[in-house]
Amino acid sequence: MSKNIAIKVENLSKAYQLGQIGTGTISRDLERWYARIRGKEDPFLRIGESNNQNTKSESDVVWSLKDINFEIEQGDAVGIIGRNGAGKSTLLKILSKVTAPTTGKISGKGRIASLLEVGTGFHPELSGRENIFLNGAILGMRKKEIQRKLDEIVDFAGIERYLDTPVKRYSSGMYVRLAFAVAAHLESEMLIVDEVLAVGDAEFQKKCLGKMGEVSKGEGRTVLFVSHNMDAVLNLCKSGIVLKDGLLDFLGGATSSVRHYQSHNLNTICNWKSTRKLTNPHFSFLKCSISGKQPELTLTIDFKTNSTSKHPNAFAVFGIKGSLGGTIMEAIPELQPYIKFEGQETSYRCEIKLNRFIPGPYSIYAWLGVSESENCDWLDDVLHFEIFDAPMDNRTFPYAARTGFQVAESKLTSMIPHD
Amino acid sequence: MIKEEQQWTIEAKSSLFDLKLHEVWAYRDLLVLLVRRDFVSFYKQTILGPLWFFIQPLFTTIIFTFIFGNLAGISTDGLPKPLFYMAGITAWNYFADCLTKTSSVFRDNAGIFGKVYFPRLIMPLSIVVSNLVRFGVQMLLFLILLAYYYFSGANFNISWAICLFPVIVILMALLGLGAGMIISAMTTKYRDLAFLISFGVQLLMYATTVIYPLSEAIKKYPEYAWIIKYNPMTPIIETFRYGFLGEGSFSWFSLGYATIVTIVLLLIGTVVFNKVERNFVDTV
Q1: Do B6 and A111 touch (CB under 8 A)?
Q2: A51 or A238, which is more confident
Q3: B279 Cβ contact partners less than 8 Å away, ≥ 6 residues apart
Q4: SS3 A354
Q5: Residue among A229, A232, A231, A228 nearest A216 (CA)
Q6: Neighbour-count burial of B242, counting CB atoms closer than 10 A to its CB (0-12 exposed, 13-18 middle, 19+ buried)
Q7: Which of A79, A363, B26, B82 suits A220 as a labelling partner, its CA being 20 to 30 A distant?
C-alpha cells in the first residue's frame, strides 16, 4: 500500500437476504453448509444480479454492494452519493466494521470515527458529562483523551448550563449537538459521516459542515460523507463516488460526480406488469422513462393495449399526481391515431413535455376509454418517477409541495425611469 | 498528533481464533464506563437506591426458609436455614444474572452494535463486571447475616476453604459468561432458545444444590444424583458453603471438573461469539 492511500477497497460485495429471516432458514443453512463441504458455491448467492429494487427477481438474495473498487487518499474529503438503496449506508457500515463484507477486502491505516447515527449509546438517565465520556469511549477514545477535549466539546455543543442534567431532559437539538460534538472531536485519521446533518437547525448544520471542512482541510484527516444534499457535498468534498443499485457508477471529482448523479438519476424507469382481473379492452404493458434536463424534461410512456374483441376507436389519457395526492396535470394526446382494438396487442408511445417540476416523487395514472363517459380501463398510481434536479440552474431554493409542483417561468426586468 | 499509525484490514473471512483481545484491552475505559452506567442508571430516580439490591435476595431467602425449610422440611445439613439458603441464592443469582444477561446481549444492544464498532466482547464482559457489583452488595448482606448468627452462637464454623472464595467468584463469572455467549450466538438467528433460557435457568436452579445439600440428594436419589453432581455449578456452590459455613461436599476433584468445564465453555463461547458478531447485524 502506498503511503498516501488512506483506504483501499478491493472487490467489495455484500449480499443480503430478502424476506423473513428465521422461518425456513434452518433448512437453507443446512443446504448451504452441505454445498460448502462439497466445495460448491453457495446455492443462494447468485452472481450477476444488481440491486434494482423495482424489479422482482427470482432469487431472494440481493447484492447490496457488488464489486466495489476504489482508493481514497489521505486528507481527501469524499462525498458518497446515490439514490435511496444504492448501497451508501451498507458501504459505510462495512467501512466502520459494523458488519462484515460477503466478499472482498478493505485495507487502511489509522483510527476511524464513524458517525452513522448521532448519540449512539447515549443513556437518557445519565448527565451530559457522563454521556460525553460514555459516548467517547464507545467511539474509541481513552478517558484522558476525552478529559482533555471536554471543554472543547461542551463549547462546540453549547450546553454548558445543562452539563450535569440527564440528557433525557435535553431538547432534541441539544441532544444532537452534543452527540455530534463528541464524534467530531475524536482524534481519528478518518471521519465517516452518514447524513446526520439532516437534523438540527440551519445554524448548527452550518457549524457541522464547517467543522467537517476544518477536519479535512485544516487537519488533513480523511472524511467520507454520505448525503443527499448536493450543495453540502459540493461545499465539503474534493472527490465523489456515485453508487447505483449497488454498483460503482462513477468515480471522480466532486463536481463531476454530482453532475453525473443528477443527469443519470432523472431516469427512473418503472415497469408495470398486470396481475389484476382484466377488463376488455385493457392496458397490457406500461413503462415510463424521463429524459432531458430541467426545464425541458420529456416523460415517455410506452404502453401496450389489448382486447379480445373488436371495439370502437379509443384514446388514452395520462395524469401526473404529486406527493400530496392531487392531480397536477393531465396529458390528453391528440386523437389521431386512434387506439384500435382488433383482437391483438398493439404498442404505443406517448411523449409528454414537463415544464420545471420541483424535485420529488410523482405518480402516473393511466386511463383508456372510448368517450368521456365510457371507461375501458383505469389504473391509478401505476407508474412512478422521481425528479432530483432543481427546476432552475444555480438555484437551490427550498421547493416545497405546498407552494406548487410546477415553477412558472418568470423574468425580472428592472424598470429604469427615462429622463 | 497521532502517535501510532496502525494498519488494518477488513476481510470477508476471518480466522476463527482471532479473538481480538488486544482490542478489548484498548477499550478498557469503555468497560469501566459501561459498568458505571449500569450501576448509576439502576437506581436513578428511585428512593431506596442501591438498597434494591438487598431486597430480592432477602425476600427469596425468607420464602425459601418457609417453603423448602419449614413446609417441605428439606434438610440443610444442620445449618441455620436462612444462612444455608442465602449462601445458595447469593452465589446462584450471580451466575444466573451473568448467564441470562449475556445470552441476550446481541438483542439488547442491537441498536448500538448496528451503528458503531467496538470490540463486542466488551459488552458481555461489562455485564459480568456490573453484576459483580451487585453480587458484592448481596455478599455484604450475607456477611451481615453470617455475623449475626455467629454472635448468637449458631452451629457452624468457617473453614479454610474460604480462601477459595476469589476462585469461586471467577469460576461463576466465567461459566455464566461462556454459556451465555454460546446461547447469545445461537439466538441471533433462531429466537427459540431465548424463550427456553428464562425458564431453563429456573429449572437449572433445581438441578443445582441451591435449596438442598448435595449429600441429601445422593442419599435420597442415588441413581439420579449424577445429574446434580455433574452440573458444574454444584461444586462451586458446595465449595462456597463449605468455605463460609463449614458444611458441604467439597473435593478437589469436583472443583477441578468445574474449572475444566468453565474453561472449555469459555473458549467455545468466545470463538462462537466472535464469529457471529461479524454479521449478526444482518440477521438479528
Answers
A1: yes
A2: A238
A3: A99, A100
A4: strand
A5: A232
A6: buried
A7: B26
Residue B29 forms contact with A (CB below 8 Å): yes
* Angle at the Cα of A417 from the Cα atoms of A412 and A419, rounded to 5 degrees: 150
Cell 462484515 identifies what position? A100
Contact A409, A356 (CB under 8 A): yes
Structural domains in chain A (count): 2
Cβ within 8 Å of residue B1, ≥6 positions away: A187, A219
Q: Positive or negative CA dihedral for B136, B137, B142, B148?
A: positive
Answer yes or no: do A292 and A252 share one domain. no
Domain boundary among A241, A264, A287: A264
Residue with cell 447475616: B145
Q: Which of B175, B40, B14 is nearest to B103 (CA)?
A: B175
Which candidate, A225, A218, A154, places its Cα nearest to that of A185? A154
The 3-state DSSP class for residue B247 equals coil
Asked if residue A61 is part of any domain, the answer here is no
Tell me how far apart the terminal alpha carbons of chain A are, to the nearest angstrom. Answer: 73
Is there a contact between A308 and A344 (Cβ–Cβ < 8 Å)?
Answer: no
Chain B residues inside the 8 Å CB shell of A130? 36-37, 40
Contacts of A208 (CB under 8 A, 6+ apart): A180, A184, A196, A197, A200
Contact between A123 and B281 using a beta-carbon 8 Å cutoff:
no
Helices (H) and strands (E) in chain A, counts: 8, 18
Would residue A12 count as lying in a domain? no
Question: Are A223 and A347 part of one and the same domain?
Answer: no
Q: For testing the chain B interface, which of A125, A146, A147 should be mutated: the one with the most B CBs within 10 Å?
A: A125
Suggest the residue from B6, B8, B120 to mutate for an interface test with chain A (most A CBs closer than 10 A).
B8
Whether residue A189 lies inside any domain: the answer is yes
A92 and A215: one domain? Answer: yes
Pair A306, A385 in one domain: yes
Taking contacts as CB-CB distances below 8 angstroms, the residues of chain A near B119 are none
Residue of B153 and B184 predicted with greater confidence:
B184
Q: Does residue A47 carry a pLDDT above 60?
A: no
Which residues are within 8 A (CB) of A405 and not within 5 positions of it... i.e. 6 or more apart?
A322, A328, A357, A358, A360, A362
Same domain, A297 and A191: no
Residues 6 or more apart whose Cβ sits within 8 Å of residue A15? A45, A61, A62, A63, A64, A102
B8 to A109: CB separation less than 8 angstroms, yes or no: yes
CATH code at A327?
2.70.50.60
Scanning every residue of chain A, which has its alpha carbon at the shortest distance from the alpha carbon of B45? A125
Domain that holds residue A367: 275-403
Reduced to 3 states (helix: H, G, I; strand: E, B; else coil), residue B149 is: helix
Q: For residue A105, give every residue at least 6 positions away whose Cβ sits within 8 Å of its Cβ, in sequence order, or none.
A: A9, A10, A11, A12, B9, B10, B11, B12
User: Do A254 and A336 lie in a common domain?
Assistant: no
Task: Reduce the DSSP state of residue A138 to 3 states and report it.
Answer: helix
Contact predicate B102/B124, CB 8 Å? yes
Residues of A in contact with B1 (CB under 8 A): 187, 219
Please indicate, yes or no, if residue A175 is contained in any of the structural domains: yes
Interface ipTM: 0.82
Do A299 and A182 lie in one domain? The reply is: no
Is the model's pLDDT at B155 over the cut of 60? yes
What does the DSSP 8-state code read for residue A418? Answer: P
Q: Residue holding cell 382494438?
A: A341
What is the pTM for the complete model shown? Answer: 0.73
- How many A/B residue pairs have CB atoms within 8 Å? 121
Res. B189: pLDDT tops 80: no
**pLDDT band, residue B46 (cuts 50/70/90):** confident
